[in-house]
Design goal:
By secondary structure, this protein is mainly α. The chain has one domain. It has 15 helices and no strands. Helix 1 runs antiparallel to helix 7, helix 1 packs parallel to helix 8 and helix 8 runs antiparallel to helix 9. The two termini are 12 Å apart.
Length: 314
């Protein structure tokens, strides 16, 4: 297929996944901030939310401090933020229009209806109820689109590029959500293992719909190293780094086979990232630094996306 069409499908999937991911990260920040207030603790939950989304530089060009109202507005609907939820939906729809004939009717309807509805929504971001209702709606619309293309697309190059976009963005997001905890500095009177620490880790699991999965796998109380293992190294957890890279490797291999076996730096880098996860041990990752591992992974994800674009999409 034309590289221009492949590029549009790849970024369509990435931006719609990004809208869902930002909704999940904002949900984490909101839960952590709410718990901190209820326990009478002060923290930097909204700053950590900004850092985790990668939107911190653009935000501080407009605002002096990371306050709840302005952070939420910037991440949800600010047109100056290309990664805001509304901007991401707009960009996804623009890419969809460019490859309208490559989409199934169900895919187009799911995305176009989302775009039409979000343009007419009266967002009530000032109240917790209104914010959480909107974030849940964004997640539901993303899941609807993912279900539509998984159920109706032919298994050809168009499908492979769409899946690549989804899982590269999802892996990046899981790493960012997990890294939120690093940036949330516990108040001096709070210790690791305290009530605030417990609820912050619980918020991480809830944000990726993995709280029940955690108890199913471990049959244990919440432990940071087990939560990290679930979200990083467990292949049966569908949003884990390992599960995402299983999919990335699979679809890069299928693309290579459909292009005469040609392989590039993107295949090597994806294989190296997959091997590091497959053979990694959570105790070694914690010993060398969870934050360092996650930031390195995020940097590698950026490089992988760049290499895929250079090899297939230009």
């Amino acid at each position: 297929m034309l590289s221009r069409a492949a590029d549009s499908l790849y970024w369509l999937a990435r931006y719609l996944e990004r809208a869902e991911n930002v909704a999940r990260i904002v949900s984490v920040g909101h839960r952590m901030a709410s718990v901190a207030r209820s326990l009478g603790s002060g923290g930097n939950e909204w700053l950590s939310t900004l850092i985790a989304t990668g939107c911190e530089p653009g935000y501080f060009e407009k605002y002096a401090e990371a306050e709840q109202k302005t952070v939420i507005d910037y991440l949800v609907r600010d047109p100056d933020n290309p990664s805001s939820i509304l901007s991401s939906i707009e960009t996804a729809r623009r890419n969809a229009r460019a490859v309208r004939t490559a989409l199934t009717i169900d895919m187009w309807d799911a995305l176009n209806e989302t775009w039409l509805e979000v343009r007419n929504l009266k967002l009530d971001l000032a109240s917790s109820e209104g914010l959480l209702r909107f974030l849940d709606w964004v997640r539901e619309r993303s899941l609807l689109f993912n279900g539509a293309y998984a159920s109706t697309m032919l298994r050809n190059d168009a499908f492979y590029f769409t899946r690549l976009g989804t899982f590269i963005e999802r892996a990046d997001n899981t790493a960012r959500i997990l890294d939120v905890k690093y940036y949330v500095l516990l108040p001096q009177h709070e210790g690791v293992g305290g009530a605030l620490d417990y609820y912050q880790w619980q918020s991480i699991l809830r944000s990726v719909s993995a709280l029940r999965a955690y108890h199913w796998v471990y049959h244990d109380r919440l432990k940071p190293w087990l939560i990290a293992e679930l979200l990083m190294l467990r292949p049966e957890m569908p949003r884990s780094l390992m599960a995402c890279h299983d999919q990335i490797g699979q679809y890069l291999t299928l693309l290579s086979e459909s292009h005469g076996g040609k392989r590039g730096e993107c295949h090597r880098l994806a294989g190296a990232m997959h091997a590091r996860l497959r053979y990694g041990r959570i105790q070694d990752i914690f010993q060398s630094g969870l934050h360092e591992f996650l930031t390195g992974f995020i940097d590698n994800s950026v490089d992988l996306g760049r290499e895929i674009s250079g090899f297939y999409l230009l």
